[in-house]
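Data card: per-record layout.
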Amino acid sequence: MTAARPLEFSPAPAARGVLDVDRIDTWVFDLDNTLYHPRANLFAQIDQRMTAFIMELLSLDPVAARALQKQYFLDYGTTLRGLMHYHGVNPRLFLDYVHDIDLTVVGPDAALASALERLPGRKLIFTNGDAPYARRVLERLGVAAHFEAIHDIVATDYVPKPHDAPYDQLLAEHGIDASRAVFVEDMARNLLPAKARGMATVWVNNGSEKGGLNASPDYIDLEIIDVPAWLSGIGLSGIGLSDIPVTPAPAS
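The structure for this 252-residue chain is written out next.
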């Protein structure tokens, strides 16, 4: 396993920005809290199971377990990465445990499905989750058929976004020309490596990342609040990537 190193970022104000839709031929999407709105609270279930896993593993009380969970996430990109580095956790056991959740809180999204069907070019998922979980969510949303591949945490040898290696691997394994690709993600810090490689970047500022942690105009080309609404506007007469209005995210 590649040695883990803490991540370092400097927060800055977010931008709204402009993108050129005509040059995009590959659309890369994050999954959780990006393709569905965080008000579904799907990730809250995962969050709770991560805490329970750490409590059992390390014999910690809920407060201490949650604090450690969040520290590993901030330092290493995922809680799993910290657990593997410090405690030798089997990643398959962890992923199976934390993804054993109720997915009925996410339902079919006809607007998203329609927008993806009309969207020209390749479409891929790039997630810090694993592929079996991602497929289940995509099937619940009714959009699985629109994605040619899922680049997951297993494919990256459990090195998560926003470390550099997963982005290089994504581009190489799927033959993506970074200059003609866009990455859509709800966590601003995960956009920095994509921008550094020449990808266009879209931050889904929908409230999942409180306060826009690490959001910076240096690596965010466009800020939106809702993926289906944004995608539905692309291709309409007179509407491009930069023309969907940005308004405050609704309270979750």
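Known properties of this structure: The chain has two domains: 21-36+108-233, 42-98. The CA atoms of residues 183 and 250 lie 23 Å apart.

See the next section for split statistics.
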